[in-house]
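User: These chains co-purify. Model them together.
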Amino acid sequence: MPSAQFRTLEREKRFQNPPKDHEEIYPLLKDAIRPHLGSFNALTDGPDGGLLNLAVKDIGTKTIFDTNDNSTSDRLGNKLKIRVDSVQLVKPSVNSNDKLSINRKMLPYECRERMITYKSRLLLKVSWTVNDSPEEFSEIREVGQLPVMVNSNRCHLENLSPEELINYKEESDELGGYFVVNGIEKLIRMLIVQRRNHPMALIRPSFGNRGASYSKFGIQIRCVRPDQTSQTNVLHYLHDGNVTFRFSWRKNEYLIPVVMILKALIETNDREIFNGIVGSDIKNSFLTDRLELLLRTFKQYNLYSKQETLAYLGDKFRIVFNATPDVSDIEVGKEVLKRIVLVHLDNNADKFKMLLFMIRKLYTLVAGDCSPDNPDATQHQEVLLGGFLYGMIIKEKIEEYLQNIRLQIQADINRGLAVNFNDRKYMSKVFSKINENIGQKLQYFLSTGNLVSQSGLDLQQVSGYTVVAEKINFHRFISHFRMVHRGSFFAELKTTTVRKLLPESWGFLCPVHTPDGSPCGLLNHLAHKCQISTHDSDVSTVAQCLAKLGVSPAHTFAAGPNVCCVQLDGKIVGWTSHEQGKVVADTLRFWKIEGEHGLPLDLEIGYVPPSSKGQYPGLYLFAGRARMMRPVKYLPLNKKDILGPFEQVYMNIAVTPEEITNNVHSHVEESPTNILSILANLTPFSDFNQSPRNMYQCQMGKQTMGTPGVALVHRSDNKLYRLQTGQTPIVKANLYDDYGMDNFPNGMNAVVAVISYTGYDMDDAMIINKSADERGFGYGTVYKVEKVDLSQSRRRGDPITQHFGFGTDAWPESWKEKLDDDGLPIIGVKVEEGDPIVAYFDETLGKTKVKTYHSSEPAYIEEVKLLGDDNADQEGQNITIKYRITRQPLIGDKFSSRHGQKGVCSRKWPQIDMPFSETGIQPDVIINPHAFPSRMTIGMFVESLAGKAGALHGIAQDSTPWKFSENDTPADFFGEQLLSAGYNYHGNEPMYSGATGEELRADIYIGCVYYQRLRHMVNDKFQVRSTGPVNSLTMQPVKGRKRSGGIRVGEMERDALIGHGTSFLLQDRLLNCSDYTQTSICRQCGSILTTQTTVPRIGSLATIRCRRCAQKLESYVQKHGYADDSDIWEDGQGKKFVGGDNTSTVAIPFVLKYLDSELSAMGIKMKYNVAPC
Amino acid sequence: MSIDRSKELSVRITNAERDRVNFELFNVDLSLANSIRRVMMAEVPTLAIDLVEIDINTSVLADEFLSHRLGLIPLNSEGIDKLAYSRDCACDNYCANCSVKLELNTKCDTDSTMSVYASDLAKFQNGLTLGNPVTRDAAKKGPLICKLRKHQEIKLTCIAKKGISKEHVKWSPCAAVGFEYDPYNKLKHTDYWFEDDAEEEWPKSANRRFEDPPDKDAPFDYKATADHFYFDTETVGNLPPNDVVLTAIETLQRKVADILVGLKDENVETSNAQSGGFTTYGRTDYDNNGGETPSGSKTPYGEFGGGSAWN
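Assistant: Joint model of the two components:
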C-alpha cells in the first residue's frame, strides 16, 4: 500500500548538523544536473587531457612566412610553424594584483555577492619552430579568465560535503552546473541536435532548391570529432541518378561529386565502388542503372588515381582552406578529406566504406525501398550539452588566436617592421599586440547567449544559448537544468510537426512538462530518470564480441539492405545476415548486462529489423557521448539495463510487471513514473487529472512564491520571492522526499471547501478566511537588491571624489532617521519613496548628498553590503542594499492548488461568517464547484480526500501516480481512513452558514489541499492614473505602469462604449482624460495654425488674431489710407497688422493640431467650419 | 420562526474540561444560538501582544515576522475586564491601565541551537496572572517563538493590549466552536448525499444520544424549528471556557442594549433625500479616518447631489 512519511525531525537534524560526507547530498538531485557538470568536466578531464587538448591537436599547426607576397616569388622567406601545444584551466583565485588576501581562493558566493564573474585563468602553451628546425620554442600565455562552472572539477566546491558547503556560504546541497556571470547565475541550455555519426535518410522539398537537377532526397550525417565539434555531410540525389556531396565550411556551402571523394579517399577503381554499393544485388536494375551513370559521368573529370583526385580537390580548395604556398595540392586535398569528410572516422578506408553505405541508403530511399528517417523523433536525436558547446567555442577562439598571430605578423611585414622569428622578444611583442582575451569572449557568450563564430559551429542558431537560472523557487531552479530546447530555428517554423509529442520520446522527454503557448513542444524537459552520457564508453571489446558472434569483418563483399550492416558509432565494423543480426543484438545485450565480456552497460544496441519499406535495416551500436539514456529492468537477468532512444523503438518494454507477456517483453519499466519530469512527478495524483491541467501545474509550480534557498544572506539577486509560512505537504509523492523538496517548501496546507458561498468565489476567485490570513496563511516577502556605485559618476582612472558617509558640511538632520553614523541605512528601518538610503560626500562640491529610495512600495532595510574591488587596494565605492518588502496576501493576489487550478483572492472573509462544520472547522479557502466540471481535475478531489485523512490521522500520504487501479481506488482507500476517523466516507460534511447558523441545504466537500501562492501579485500590477505624464508630441497620456501612464481605450473598448450609447463616457475617456486642448481658431479662414496672441498694449489685454486674415499695417494703410490705432495689433517680432479678429476658441484633441501641422508640412491645408451648436 | 415562549430557556453542560466545554442550549431561536457562537469567536475581549519594540533582533526571523509570532502567543486573559481598551484609556500611548508589558531578552551562547519559548517572555509584574503566557505542555514552556544560533540575540519589549478577534485573530479566545442542531436531520434543513442509504453511510453525530430518533411513520412537521443546540467551545487557553461563554452572553446583551438605545426616537436621524438619501447615524468620524469618505457624500460630483442629477 502507498506510504509516505513526513521526516520532519530527520530534516531538522540535517539542517542543524549538516552531513560531513559528500555522498549525503541527494543522489537524485546530483543526477539531475549531471549532464551539465559532466560535459564541463570532460573539457579538462580524461585520459587524453580532456576535450580542450584534443581540440588544440585538431587545430594543428599554422604556418607563417616572413615575406609579404608569397604567391609569386619563389622565395618564401623564413617559415614559422606555430601551434597551441596544450591548454590548461586553473581553479579560480583572487586577482594577482591583490596583495592583501591570505586565502587566494575565489569562491562562488563572493562572485554572487560582488556581482562579478566566477572565472579562472586559461593558459595556453604556444609552441613554434622556425624553418622546420628541430628546436622548438614555447611560451605559456594567459589568455584571459574563463568563466568556470560551479561545482565542476575547476571549482573549489567540487565534492564538498554539505557541512563544508555551508562553510563556503552555499546551500547545504549546492549542485552547481551553472556559471556565475556578473553575479547572475547562467547556464547553457541543452539543445536537441541530430544524432551523431548515423546517416539519416531525409526527404526534404527544400533539397530541390539547390539546383535544376537536385531532388528532394538526401542522406545527412552529423559527424562528430573526438573533441565534440561536428561537421555535417549531406549526400544529394540528382534527378539523373547522380549523387553529390555537400558540406558547409565557414558558413559557405560546397558541392562535390561523390565519386571524386570516393576516389580521393583511397586508391580504388570503379569496380570496387560498384561492388561496395551494389553487393550481390546485381539484379536490381534501378540501382545498377544509376550506378553506371554515377560512374560514367565522373569520367569527364579525367581523374583516375587517388593522387590525381587529391590534387584536383586541393587545387580547388586551396583558397578556401587558406593553404600556404609550401603545401602541395595533394596535401591540401588530404586536409579537405580530413577536416570535412566523415570526420568522426580517422581512417580513409572506413570513410570510404561509410560513404558507400550512405550512397546505397540514398538509392534505397529513392527507390522507395526504405522510409525516410524522422528528424523530429528522439530516435535520431541527441543532446548538445552545455559543456561541449562551451568547448567548441573555446576551440574556435583558440584557432582565431592563431590566425590573429598570423594577421599581426602580416601587418608587421606590411608596415615594414623588423620581423624576426628567431627573436623571442619579437614573438613576445606579437603576443602582446593581439587580443589575448579569450575568457572575455566566453563571458560575453554566457551573459548574452549570442554565438559569435566564423564557422557557425555546425549549429542552426546564433543566439539564445544561455538562460538565467532563476531562483524563484526550487522547482524553477531545478527545471532549468532538465530543460532541452529544440532550437530557436524551429520556433519560427510555421509547421507544428516538430512540436508533436512522439511515442519515441517515451521515457526520455516528459510528455507533461512543456509550456503552453509559443514554446510548446519545443522546450521540453527530460524525464527524471533520463541521463545524458558525457563520456565515451569503452568499446575495445566490441569487435572481439562481434567476431565471436560470427559477424564477418567490414571488408567483406556485402552491401545493401538485404544484409545486416553492423556499425559502431558510425563505423562499419562488419556484416551479417538479418537472422544472425537479431541473434547478435540479443546476445550482445545479454552480455553487456551480464557484464562479463567487458561491454559497457550503456552501449546502445539498435537493431533495426528488415521490413517492407520501413527504416533502413542494420545493427547500429552507439557508445559515444551526448546520448540520452534511461534505466529499465532487463527481464532475463532481472538486472538494470540502460536504454537509448534508438534501440527503444524496436524493443518491447512492459510498463508494469503485471503486463509482462512471455516471449514478448524483454524489459520492464523500473517505475511508470520514470516517464515524467521532476516537476510532473510532484503533481499529486496526476493520473486522475485531465492532462492539460498537469501541464499547467508544471508551469505554475515554477511561478510559485516558495523558498528559493536557505543561504539567502549570501545572495544578491535582483528580486527574490520567499514564502515565510511554507509547510510540507500532507499529500506528496515519495519522489518529493527523494529530491529533497522539503528543504524548499513551496506552499501551505489549507482546509478547502468546495462551495459556492457569498458569490465572491465566482469565476475562479477564491475566498480566504480572514483569520487564516491573520495567522500567516500565504505570508510572503520579496527581497530586492539595489547596487549603489559611486564610481559610475567618474571616468575610469580619475581620482575618487565621492566617499560614503557624512561630510562636515550642514545637511538635514532628518536624514539621521534613516541613516546611521556611517551614512549607510540602519538595518531594519522602514524606507518609503524619497527617503535617503545612503549618504556620500562629494569632494568637488564640498557637499553631502544622499541617494533616495525609488519605489512607491515601502520596504525595510534587510542588509547592507560593502563591496571592494578586485585589487583590494582602493576605497570602497560600491554597496548593495537589500530591501525586504512584506507581501501579505491581498485581494487580487494569485493562488493555485497543485492541479492547474489557479484563482485570485477576491475577499478576506471574516471567520465568523465562514461556513463551519459540526466540529467547528472552518475552511481557510473557499473555491467554487464550477471550477471542476469542465477542467476535470479529479486529482484535486483525491488530494483533498487524502489530505483530510492524513490530517486526521497525523500521517503523510503518498500521491505517486499510478499507485491505484480500477479495483483499488483512492476513493475507497482514503474513504476507509476517513470513516475510521469518524468522518463521511466521501469527504463530505454537513456545514452551517456562518452568518445565520442555519444548516446548508447540501453537504459540502471539504478537505486539505496544498496551496501555492503564485508570484503574480496586485502590488506589482495595479495601475491607476488620474493625471500624469503625457507624450510631448501628442499630449496624450503615456503608456506603461512604470511611468504611471494610462491604459489604452482601444478600438474594441470604444466600440463597446458606442454600443452602450454612453457618449458622455466616451468623450470623457477619449477627449477629456486624454489630450483635451483648447485652441484658438480663425472663423474666417477656418485654420487653427494661423492664429496667434498679440502683444498686449498698455491698458488692454492680449487678443487672439489670425495672422493669415490680417493685413500688414502698411498694405492696409495703402489701401484704406488710415488705420484706427485700436485696430492695430503687433506680433512678437514688432510687425504691425490690422484685422484678422474673427477668431474664437474651440476644444479639440491635441493630436488634431499635430495632424494639421504634419499635413501643412505636406502642403495640405485643413479648414474647419466653426458654428455654434 | 418564533420560539415557543412557553418553554423556558435552559442550558445543560454535558462536558467541561480545562480548555473546553460542551453544552446544550434549549428553547432559543437559531439566530440567538448562532449569535452566541459568533460573539464567542469574535467579540470576547482577550489580551494579546499588539506592539513590539525591538531593540536587537539578530535572529533569522525578520522583525515583522517575529512580531507576528509574538502576537499569536496566547496570554492569560483572566481579569481582562479590569483592563481598559487602549483607545478608551486616557493615556497617550499605553499605560498600566490598558496594557501589560512583557520583555524578551535572550541570547544564544552555546554551539547548539537554542529554542526560545513563550515562557521566556518576562512580564513586568502587575500582581495578576493577567498577561502570563499560556503553557499547556508538560515542560511548561509554551509555544516556540524562534530558534537562535550562537551569537544571535533578541531583545525586545512587547506591549500586550486588550482587543477582540474581530480586529485580529490573535485576540480570539477560541480555537474552534462546534455547533450543531438537529442531529437526526428531522427538520430536513440539509440533504445528505448518499449512494444507497444516507443513514448507513453517514457517521452518526455524537449528539444523537441526547435526542429521540425520528418516528419513521410520523408526518413531516413543516412548522418545526430548531430549538436544541449543541455547542463545543474549545479555547486556546487564555480564558477558561466558562468565562468565554459568559462574557459572550454579556457582550451580546450589551450589543442588544446598544441597539435599543440606538433605536430610541431622538437618536434616529430622518432619512434625508436631499443629501442623496445618506444618513450618518451618528457616525461623524469619517474625516479623520484617513481620507476614507462614505460613498456619495464627498465625491467630486458632489454638487450634482444625489437624485437631483436625474431631474
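Chain A touches chain B at residues 16, 724, 770-771, 774-776, 779, 781, 828, 860, 862, 884, 886, 910-912, 916, 918-922, 979, 982-986, 988, 990, 992, 994, 996-1003 (CB under 8 Å).
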